[in-house]
Protein 1
Amino acid sequence: MPSKVITIDGPSASGKGTLAKLLSKQINFDLLDSGALYRAFAFFTNQGLSHEVITKKLSSISFILKHAKVQIVSDNEDITNELRMERIAILASELSSKSLTRKLLLPIQRGYGANSNLVADGRDMGTVVFPDADLKIYLDANIEIRAKRRQLELQKRGQEVNIHDLMTDILERDNKDMRRDISPLRKADDAFTIDSSNLSSEQVLNNAIDEIKKRGLI
Ligand code: DC
């Protein structure tokens, strides 16, 4: 039986990662955090590795759910914290707008859905990487809520950031993601939209599960 793919796209801090993680756990599908692949690509490029070696490494990354967190493991090494570094995020953003990067990452991402049921989150999962996905979710939320969520997330990590600065940062990122020439962030025509502005993560999960059941995917 062909594997089933559920995609989750949406702007920064809309809750994609949380939904992907909860869904993958609840319905027992594998997880692909494509943003982490872009970050890993930046991380390995920064180490001066060749594209051949990077391709091998990116194809065998594991996204492991542990204590409600996603651990990113490459060659038995946990690289989650390295990929969170600001320097790597900036480089990932820069490299992700290049066609060579996207060309290289396309088959790698598809490989993850080749043999197992998959929940894939990112910016172009439903539009470019998995255009035939069984369900495409577009997750959105208003800017104030997204900035507030990001602020809470950073506070948990001991960082205090001004909410207005965060809003500016997020809008700038949205702009960049939506206006780039290659694979811009956009809602797929056949996407199922969830606006998470006034919903808890539990409610977002339940909305997604209802739709998954309606389509007979579980
Ligand atoms: O979601 P994130 O912040 O971990 O993503 C890291 C970078 O990769 C970010 O600049 C957006 C980019 N990205 C992308 O261009 N396409 C994707 N499918 C996922 C992420």
Protein 2
Amino acid sequence: MKAELTMKEDQGRFILRGQTFAFAGNPFEIGAQEAVDHRQDGAVVVESGRIIAVGAATDILEQNMGVPIVNYGDALIMAGFIDVHTHYPQLDIIASNSQGLVDWLQKHTFPCEAQFDDQTIAENSAEFFLEQCFLNGVTTASVYCTVHPQSVMSFFEAATRRNVCMAAGKVCMDSNTPSNLADTAQTAYDQSKALIDCWHGVGRNHYAITPRFALTSSPAQLEALGSLWREHPTVLMQTHLSETKDEIARVLQQHPTYDSYYQIYQSFGLTGAGAIFGHCIHLSDDERLAIAGSGAAIAHCPTSNAFMGSGLFDLEATRRAAPDILVSLASDVGAGVSFSMFATMRAAYEAARFHGVVLHPAEAFWMATCGGSKAMRLDDRLGNLTAGMDADLMVLDLKSNPLIARRLARAENFFDVLFAQIIMADERAVKATYVAGNIVHQRAQVSA
Ligand code: GUN
Ligand code: ZN
């Protein structure tokens, strides 16, 4: 069944023509003007799931006579979005009210996740989740499953059928956990290891060791998972860190010998390049510096943070304390309320604005693409529209509703165009999504 449904990989060469948008560098480091490479009439050559060339349409067409062309007119071709922190089993509890994180986990999340011992439920959710990703131009994500190994199997099977590059892991939790969701230090290690052996590096799949957070893991479990990561250093590690003040107090009560929340993960070897810490809202400057020094990444989850009342992540203060720190963007579905990276970028803009800072559209788009691939240690393969990268792309209708179209009549430059998307676009802007060169989503024409 797996082979039968796997997407065709051996494609002939074809060309996508339209506006193109790539990053020549990191706008946080070299400034937006230098970092953004935009072409009004560009073209992308794709072959066998890879980007072969990107350039001016006239040059590309001349060099590729007779190669089929898909002409997207003035739509924008760019790398697909990367969502570095999301929970596929929490689809069905988006928009569930609570008094805050712990209440939400107990009231909504744990009962929902408990159903994922049922493979049929897991399969159905995994399928729906991936379709939502494609609808929103998300071509890669780092995904939390549930404590049940079969939830991970179902997810990777669905991802494999679509030949999409996804990271995922079994959530590990042995403390402060309902008995129907609890594993142990040993079963967390054994089951995670078996899943790594089965899936990591198979096709486009990547494994992420996933202790839920320090409140639901005993020191013994964190120790076991730290050992597992040392034994399998190419996998990712994802967890939650400093999301709410109440959580921090509870965590420090549970792990009383530590001075800070981050230090707990650090002491068990659960940090470094390939570690992705979700939220990181209430960190001290010492924690920020230590994270940056380790090479780990922050997953900024602004729609989640606003919806849950967790706090407003301060990107500016974080970067001031640790200029090299890597901050990427994430939906955090289902505490996060949208699959759309436009909604996520908009919420990131608003969070920064509340701290008195204007987030540049190039910075927001960078965090939602290149920043994500860097956090996942995949930046040599995807996250940008450049030759040699996997052809995980989306095509954006920049005038996807009459209001945006009207606003763009006054746009003075490409940054105005990007900013209007952040503030006003939703999934209707995603005209097409390509995964490894295969079209996986196509929207009927809606241009104004
Ligand atoms: N902290 C621990 N588990 C979770 C979760 O599932 N979602 C969020 N937002 N925070 C968490
Ligand atoms: Zn989360």
